[in-house]
Write a structure and sequence with these properties.
By secondary structure, the protein is an alpha/beta fold. The chain is 33% helix and 19% strand. The chain has five helices and ten strands. Strand 9 and strand 10 form a beta hairpin.
Amino acid sequence: MLTSLPRPFSACVLGASGGIGAAIASALANEDGVTVFAGSRSGGTEIPRTSSFAFDLIDEASIAAGAAHVRDAPPLRLVFVATGQLHADDLRPEKSWRDQTPDAYARAFAINATGPALIGKHLLPLLTRDGKSVFAALSARVSSISDNRLGGWHAYRASKSALNMIVANFARELAHSRKEAVAVTLHPGTVDTALSAPFQRGVAEGKLFTPDYSAEKLLDVIDGLTPTDSGGLFAWDGERIPF
């Protein structure tokens, strides 16, 4: 439960058709005094007690149109960006530098970095100036340069590292106009979703989370954040992960 965000307030979840995004939107919709806007590419999420809208990460006009949905709602205190791409039908994480392609980098940065940056462009100005507000975007532990022990996954790692820097920049700028605002990236753990499905074989017992469990833990982390945490990357258990 988000006890640190004054009610009533609005929350906007981008990527609400994915496993984690849907779980976050559903959990928020079950809290009293929270109006939830759920954005997805299709525009239909079927999550009870939410208002859905369509947007496309590579179409800035659609992001701007989605942001318009929250302008006349209760104060916007939470933006949760649950978007991301690790693989697709013709795209797999690189095992070696030999596997790198321009297309893989272009697509990874468009989805994992540029798209969330444009979400920030259009939704950060709508965050309330009164009291705590949070902009949170899903990143990954593998985005940490200092924690990189295995290498590989070049485009994904680089794009999520870029996302960390983008959100760190947001944090610096927010501090000038919204003293209690927090902007962070979050590592959700290994969650049983389509994104992680091809890579679950080596996951230790008890470390493959359901979307609902990951969402619960991430909301707990968000609840405990203060302005001194702004700009950081945090894991599902509250651990601060170094860049």
